[in-house]
Amino acid sequence: MLNSLKQSLINMFKMVICGMLLTSPLHSFAEYPDKPIRMIVGYSPGGAADNLIRPIADRLTRILGQSVVMEYHPGAGGVIAADILAKSPADGYTLHITDSGPMAIVPKMKKTPYNPMTDFTPIAMVGTGGVIIVTPSNSSAINLKILIDLMKDKPGSWSYGTSGIGGVGHLAGEQFKLATGVKMTHVPYKGGAPAIVELIGGHVPVLFSSLGAASAHIQSGRIKALAVTSLKRSSMFPEVPTLAESGYPNFDASIWFGIVGPAKLPPAVMDKLLPALSAVLQDATVQESIRKEGYDLISLSPAQMQTQINQDLERWGKVIKAANVTYD
Hints:
Elements: H1 2-23, H2 25-30, E1 37-41, H3 48-64, E2 68-72, H4 79-86, E3 94-99, H5 100-105, E4 120-136, H6 144-153, E5 158-162, H7 168-180, E6 184-188, H8 192-200, E7 207-210, H9 211-220, E8 223-228, E9 254-262, H10 267-281, H11 284-292, H12 302-323
Parallel strand pairs: 1-2, 1-3, 5-6
Antiparallel strand pairs: 3-9, 4-7, 4-8, 4-9
Helix pairs in contact: 3-10, 3-11, 7-12
């Protein structure tokens, strides 16, 4: 009798535990995703981040069986969007396409409401690449050596344009000044498109541009490409040399784009997202869309991605300190 009662109590206990597991958050993670996923974008529609993430989101929707919906929060160099992501629930239903700016550059220029080393879960890298140094088609600076010689002949009279303060173009320009010893004034514009217009119009003599923004104008002959700031040549313009091979060894001013979630994403969520994104990034159409924006594919594990963020914080921090760059 006593044994029978004891067995009944054990069975009841097992039933209670099973019920708790079935209704617990762990069960919902096991069934992840069972509703649409928000993809936070820190820039306006039509920019590089948007163009990169849209084909990824479309194919991720097919694989996961739930819509991946774009949500735009531009401003502050991507900091606004990154902060929204950092404060979102760690349930896998809010993700973020981010880049080196809000993750590794802006935090070295001013205090951000998040810590890039602890407040995010790295998920997948999307692409990496440098910026391209371009001049108007009628410029006498027909190659990098001549450009540098002209700048040194008239120190202080040169300026360079970028898509804005604190972006990789700005930091690449400052790193260029440190490496070459030239003097030039930064002229920030409100985006890559207006910067290109000003370059073509002769209002700025040289531009540190994203490859995606400059590509059509280079191909049409309206502007000339002199060098790329990445350590390796770009697959978009393989004929354009790097600074590293132009007499400035190890020069590397690259940017990356990647997908992150809030800190402490559950393993069950990561177990769904990692293979899904791996499959998406192997899709030929997605790969072509990444190359079209001027970036090359990069494959890093979440741990390696966090290491990259930490290394970039240190690398860009040195440039920012040496150049005394501030962000207003």
